[in-house]
Design goal:
By secondary structure, the chain is an alpha+beta fold. A hairpin with a 2-residue loop joins strand 41 and strand 42 (890-900).
């Protein structure tokens, strides 16, 4: 137990009561408690309060049943000066309030230990949450791991409603308003057509059966219930009548469009809230009055407090971390200077980063533990790097995490036989001091950290690294010197710091903020040891470390406000005609919010309101929560925020309001922000020039930094006084935290914080060139190799974020069908962010082609566009934008981005024709043109390329959506520009020669890993040649022979592959290279930077004018999306790595062509999606169902968005049971997708595996073939359908009432049963 330094912000807790106020952060390992005790004012306690801290284990059943209750007991003992019985009820007469943040909900979600519950959903969507957005979490994992769903059973309700209008109308405006008994007005103002009302007696029977099975909690989520609530409300009434104690209606919980996240949210609430209710009931039962005479609040994920009886599972996911954000926001941010603050919360297994700029940064749709939920949450990014993160050397790289030593066995120094971890590195280097760390280790829990255990494992690891590096440097003709154990440990810390900097850069630079113009607030158990180093990496000059950094989340609870939110859905265009009604609805929500806080004892003077509209441009899904600002109009504010976030606006497009939100906050007293800044203004720091004579001095110890050991003075924090200024190197200790003050840094002591400042003229980030020269040379170094791996990948990722933000089309912005990459001066791939696999190996071919085409004709400011298959393209909609980076007139790097554009002309909308025979039928094509010449955008050339040239061919048109394509091309140019800026900054930091050297080093590292894989494959199979083949549905054959040499080289020989076809499944050579590099990367099965080095050991032989190397005029649209998948199946089966997956992307396109009447052009529209299927099983895993595999990973449009935007009804999207091949490990099931069309339009299907089924492997059975059906409605009032089999590929026109049913293939099984 320790005393908390005075902080007058705590006066905000005063509520007119004189009782004890307690704040508790119950974490997974420790529970931190802060108690504010009223005392007589004195010199020691001038504000009449004494503050104590209690830290205890969250689970210690041999000593207490509940950690928070035990913490309160110890605080009461400190207040009364006498013992309180541990086993009896606690006396609450002296308690005024309790505030708590807890990981109870988070742990139950992660460990899947919630309440058994059932999902009630519209028939046809039973598996919707299993499929989700159909993307797989990690594109290179052959064993796809998706989180299990939370519900135990599903109740499908025979009901259906849809919207009676759609946003993308070929006529431009909706039909006139009309109503009948089947059409009603939803609460958003949208017209809802009731297609089928439930049989309520059948519903009661279904619910009763579920209740009788023992389930007591249900989540109800029906299609379009965000606007039409009647059916959900009646189901809720029946469920209450039956006796269900917990019922979650999605229409009440999160009334927002998008059924997938809304259903996830409702299920989370049904899964977690009953357990939270039991926990809070059990907690309150340990007190004599059960909290009836005091206020008890819990922290929510949005950073606000809720009364104990209003605390729910959906709002509890980030309860613990959110309090920490409040803590640093209030204590570190100054409203006067307005310098934004980055929160850096480093714990045992992970690090949380966040940002505060005077307003809490909320997100309204986020994924936690693999589940996408709709609820306001603080924007907290987590990276798997903490004190317990494992240190490993693999594939020539030093890696930190994501594996963790955990609490048991913990790091090696915990005396439990654990692995090396970040804590061990800090201990070995002296950044942590064993004698000053709690002695709680060993069998009797009375020994210090074991330095020798850490040293022994580091010695073994150093020998391994030095041996590997000696061999590598010898091959490069470089002199090798063994690195010391300390250098290896420090290197791992540098890698850890770079790992933790990546999400900070994403949080700042990727959103247009300069990271150097921030302060850093470090807290958490391990943050103090890394504060200076992380700030150095980022170029940040000031760091705040609160005196109670290790318990800042508990402290933040003391500073938080009580929050109540109200939300309502909408579907209105923002205009002068709708403004008044929308504002009136906001006023109504505000009145409800005030009333809720009034009922909790807050007066009007104590209540603040924030009012928001959730707004977006029509035709997009990217919405922004726009706050009401004095003197600003919502529409203008939205446009300004859109420009800041995305860099552009869409003039001429309507602004749509999707939701209304009011956030009300109640506080007894206004909290004062950033008092430390006021103190610093008046503080006159006094340097501690003679540490050994200072009362806080403990001893001087050797500590290892870059360059060797240096003596560092150790100080006790509680003996330092405000104004003390300590120069690094130094260590400052308190009971629960160690702060390392690095050389060239200094610590200024204030009453509440340590303020770390860069003492030299500039940080590494600001004077990067000088510092970089000291840190790295062109010689291969395993530490810098790992750091550069992170930096290169981070640049590619930031390019991708820029493209996602600045693009406008659904394909790029929402389906994320794009890739970004960096290339060396020869056009070889250096780093490719994990976007779309089919782009991976082919983009380097595109860059190298343009190098030859424009040899001697590329200058600064040029940007090249290309998409032709012979120029390294994949298929024509994938347009590549290439930008050279020059130094002294010579290209030193290239950056490129490739995006799938919605329509580039040709014979059918969407430019994905199923019947194309010639390349020109698939749209615009070019071997390469300069879209920008010396900085000038060439729009005339772009118009000619997209509109005029395609229309010159018979039955073809130019792009049907020129505006969006043009905007997306500019977004790609912007993404490249971002990559160039980051590459130049990297060169400034390290020097051009070093950056280029590490581009080569990292490629050789990948080459070595692939060679090792190939050598191991040769040994495992006992032969040097592997063979495999498979057939396309038209009978065309892909044959492969792989010959592996002793040195790990390989020849991939595709001789025997069928000739080019007069159709569109031809695949250009770049697609084959993409498939090879993807499969090799998957089979390495560990972290490896994907680059050109993966292909260095490989020679590829493809017969000319074959299916895999067609003529320049051959149609190829299917080769990119179909043949590429078959190539992966062939390669993986040849290596025995996995059975065949669905072997298809199941491309579905529909739309309406442009029309011209009386000289007036009416733009057409098109929609494109790819549909998930079954994943192939492998030697140790079952195949995953309903997921995208191999060469694609695009998302699918939410069913409610699909029906809101297009004239269709989605009747079914579910798994296709028993379609995975049987075997020792079963293949994954395909999907069923049934779409009804409400207007006449063109439909194209481009699919495979409708004739030849996905093969099993090693005796496993084949997966089921896919099937495409056209259910053509028969004329007449009697209805009925004529069912037609469409085969693999077809283009046709549907009439209103027709259905297309796509049944995707299953995956092959592995091993005989």
């Amino acid at each position: 137990m320790e005393r908390l330094p005075h902080h007058s912000s705590l006066l905000a807790l005063r509520s007119g009561q004189s009782g004890i106020r307690v704040c508790i952060d119950r974490g997974g390992t420790f529970t931190d408690c802060v108690g504010i005790l009223p005392v007589e004012p004195s010199a020691e306690h001038p504000n009449g309060e004494r503050v104590v801290v209690v830290k205890l284990l969250s689970e210690d059943p041999s000593h207490y049943a509940d950690a928070p209750r035990e913490g309160i007991r110890r605080i009461l003992e400190a207040a009364a000066g006498k013992r309180h019985q541990r086993d009896g009820l606690l006396d609450t007469s002296s308690l005024a309030s309790v505030r708590m943040g807890t990981t109870v909900a988070t742990n139950a979600l992660l460990e899947r230990k919630g309440e058994p519950c059932a999902l009630v959903i519209t028939r046809g969507f039973r598996d919707l949450l299993k499929i989700g957005n159909q993307a797989r979490p990690k594109i290179f994992d052959l064993e796809i791991a998706k989180p299990d769903v939370l519900y135990q059973s599903v109740i499908q309700i025979d009901e259906r409603v849809t919207l009676d209008d759609y946003a993308i109308s070929p006529h431009g405006t909706p039909s006139p308003l009309h109503f009948d008994e089947h059409v009603v007005l939803g609460r958003t103002g949208e017209r809802v057509r009731v297609l089928a009302a439930p049989d309520w007696s059948a519903v009661r029977s279904q619910l009763q059966s579920t209740y009788d099975s023992g389930i007591r909690s249900i989540a109800v989520c029906l299609m379009h219930s965000y606007t039409f609530t009647v059916h959900e409300e009646e189901i809720g009434r029946i469920a209450r009548d039956i006796g269900f104690p917990h019922i979650t209606l999605s229409s009440e919980l999160v009334p927002m469009v998008k059924i997938v996240p809304r259903a996830h949210s409702a299920t989370i609430d049904a899964y977690l809230t009953p357990g939270i209710r039991r926990y809070t009931k059990g907690f309150s039962s340990g007190f004599d009055s059960g909290f009836s005479n005091m206020r008890v609040d819990f922290m929510q994920s949005d950073g606000g407090l809720a009364p104990i009886n209003k605390f729910t599972g959906l709002r509890a996911i980030l309860s613990g971390p959110a309090a920490g954000v409040v803590g640093y926001a209030v204590t570190c941010y100054s409203p006067n200077s307005k310098v934004p603050v980055i929160g850096f919360d480093m714990g045992g297994t992970s690090t949380d980063v966040s940002r505060f700029d005077g307003r809490f940064d909320h997100v309204y749709e986020a994924t936690t533990a693999g589940v996408t939920i709709q609820a306001p949450q603080l924007n907290i990014n987590t990276v798997a790097a903490g004190g317990g993160s494992c240190l490993l050397f693999r594939n020539g790289l030093m890696t930190v995490g994501p594996e963790s030593a955990g609490a048991h066995p913990g790091p090696a120094c915990y005396r439990k036989g654990g692995p090396l971890a970040v804590t061990d590195a800090n201990l070995l280097l002296g950044h942590l001091q064993a004698k000053h760390f709690p002695w709680i280790f060993g069998p009797s829990e009375d020994q210090p950290l074991d330095v020798e255990a850490a040293h022994l494992l580091f010695l073994q690891l150093a020998q391994n690294i030095n041996s590997k590096m000696s061999s590598e440097r010898s091959l490069l003709g470089q002199r090798h010197e063994d690195k010391s154990v300390e250098d290896i440990a420090l290197g791992f810390l540098e890698v850890a710091n770079e790992t933790m900097c990546r999400p900070i850069r994403a949080l700042t630079e990727a959103k247009g903020h300069d990271v150097q113009q921030h302060d850093l607030a470090c807290f958490g158990g391990a943050g103090g040891q890394h504060a200076c180093a992380v700030a150095d990496n980022l170029g940040i000059r000031r760091v705040f470390v609160h005196r109670l950094a290790s318990v800042l989340s508990a402290y933040g609870l003391a500073l938080a406000e009580v929050v109540h939110e109200e939300q309502a859905p909408a579907a209105d265009v923002w205009s002068a005609a709708t403004r008044s009604a929308l504002i009136s609805r906001l006023d109504d929500l505000a009145r409800v919010c005030r009333s809720r806080l009034h009922s909790q004892g807050f007066s009007d003077a104590q209540i603040r309101l924030d009012r928001f509209f959730n707004m977006r441009y029509d035709g997009t899904d990217t919405s922004i929560m726009v706050p009401e600002r004095v003197g600003a109009e919502f529409g203008v504010e939205f446009e300004a925020m859109h420009r800041q976030e995305f860099g552009f606006d869409l003039r001429g497009r309507d602004i749509v309001v999707d939701d209304l939100r009011v956030r009300s906050m109640g506080a007894q007293t206004e909290v004062k922000y950033g008092e430390v800044h006021d103190e610093l203004l008046h503080l006159r720091p006094t340097p501690v020039t003679c540490p050994a004579t200072h009362p806080a001095f403990v001893e001087s110890v050797p500590v290892y930094f870059r360059g060797g050991f240096r003596n560092a003075a150790i100080f006790k924090l509680d003996r330092l006084t405000p104004g003390d200024m300590i120069s690094g190197p130094a260590i400052i200790l308190d009971a629960n935290n160690t702060v390392l003050v690095e050389p060239e840094w200094r610590a200024i002591v204030t009453s509440s914080q340590l303020v770390l400042e860069r003492a030299s003229a500039a940080s590494r980030g600001a004077n990067a060139e000088k510092q970089g020269d000291q840190r790295a040379t062109t010689d291969l170094d395993p530490i810098q190799l790992s750091v550069f791996s992170h930096r290169f990948m981070a640049i590619a990722e930031q390019m991708g974020r820029t493209l996602e933000k600045t693009s406008t089309s659904t394909n790029i912005k929402e389906r994320l069908d794009f890739s970004c990459a960096l290339f060396d001066p020869a056009g070889n791939l250096v780093a490719n962010a994990p976007h779309i696999p089919v782009h991976l190996g082919s983009m380097s071919h595109a860059v190298q082609f343009q190098l030859k085409k424009f040899a001697g004709d590329l200058v600064e400011g040029d940007v090249v566009l290309a998409n032709h298959p012979q120029a390294g393209g994949s298929h024509l909609p994938d347009i590549t934008i290439i930008t050279p980076v020059f130094e002294a007139g010579v290209p030193i790097f290239f950056v490129a981005s490739r995006g799938h554009h919605s329509d580039i002309g040709g014979i059918s909308p969407g430019s994905m024709p199923s019947t194309s025979k010639e390349l020109f039928q698939e749209g615009a094509s070019t071997m390469g043109l300069k879209i920008v010449k010396q900085g000038v955008f060439q729009e005339a050339d772009v118009r000619r390329f997209l509109l005029e040239e395609p229309a010159n061919h018979p039955e073809c048109t130019g792009t049907r959506n020129y505006r969006d394509v043009l905007s997306d091309l500019k977004a790609q140019i912007a993404a490249n520009h971002r990559g160039i800026a980051l590459l130049r900054a990297l060169c400034l930091e390290y020097g051009l020669d070093v950056v280029q050297a590490y581009m080569s080093h990292i490629q050789r590292t990948a080459e070595a890993a692939v060679r090792a894989l190939l050598v191991e494959t040769r040994k495992r199979h006992g032969r040097i040649q592997l063979c495999g083949s498979d057939s396309m549905d038209d009978g065309s054959k892909i044959s492969l022979s792989v010959t592996i040499g002793e040195d790990g080289s390989a020849v991939f020989d595709f001789n025997g592959t069928s000739p080019e076809v007069y159709g569109n499944i031809n695949a250009p050579p770049s697609v084959t290279y993409s498939a090879i590099i993807y499969c090799l990367r998957c089979m390495v099965q560990s972290e490896l930077p994907l680059n050109q080095g993966c292909l260095a050991p490989v020679q590829v032989a493809i017969p000319e004018y074959s299916l895999l190397s067609p003529s320049p005029t051959a149609a190829v649209v299917g080769g990119n999306v179909l043949t590429s998948q078959r190539l992966c199946d062939v390669i993986l089966s040849t290596f025995g790595a996995a059975a065949a997956s669905q072997g298809c992307m199941n491309n579905l396109t529909f739309g309406v062509p442009a029309t011209e009447t009386n000289g007036s052009r009416q733009e057409g529209w098109g929609y494109y999606e790819t549909i998930a299927g079954g994943h192939g099983a492998g030697p140790t895993w079952n195949g995953q169902s309903g997921v995208h595999t191999h060469m694609t990973n695009t998302r699918i449009t939410d069913p409610e968005i699909l029906e809101r935007r297009y004239p269709v009804i989605l009747h079914q999207f579910s798994l296709r049971e028993d379609t995975g091949g049987k075997g020792r490990h079963t293949g994954g099931d395909g999907c069923v997708r049934d779409i009804e069309f409400l207007k006449r339009m063109s439909v194209s299907l481009l699919t495979e595996r409708r004739v030849f089924s996905p093969p099993g492997l090693a005796g496993g059975e084949h997966g089921a073939c896919g099937v495409n059906l056209w259910k053509r409605r028969l004329p007449g009032a009697g209805g009925g359908f004529q069912v037609l089999n469409l085969g693999s590929k077809n283009t046709f026109f549907v009439s209103p009432g027709d259905h297309v049913v796509v049944m995707t293939p299953g995956g092959g099984g592995y091993g005989s049963v």
